[in-house]
Design a protein that fits this description.
The chain is of the alpha+beta class. The protein has a domain at 3-14 and 44-97. The protein has helices at residues 3-8, 43-52, 59-70, 76-91, and strands at 10-12, 19-23, 28-32, 37-41, 57-58, 96-98. A hairpin with a 4-residue loop joins β2 (19-23) and β3. α2 (43-52) crosses α3. The radius of gyration is 13 Å and the shape is globular.
Length: 102
Amino acid sequence: MPAEPLRQARFRAPFHERFLWAHWEVDSVLFNGGTGDTHLLSPIPSEILDLLGDREMPFFEICADMASRCSVANDAIWQEKLARIISDLEQLDIIEARIDEA
């Protein structure tokens, strides 16, 4: 999803109840029971999925909550980084976006 529509979207993890996790010191492995795929995730994508849980959240709320969790400023650089990560998670069918039609 291009950056601008992504920033207007709400995100959710549709198969979160079917996620199976293995955590190591830093990285985690996620088996997505909804798709049958296994993914190696670094800490930030794992935290985003933990944050989403079974709810839907808008992009800017994800950015603010994640900035707080990671003790960083919620600035344009942070938001661009999260936009890339969220786009990657969406392309992997781990999360999905919904854009409200005006």
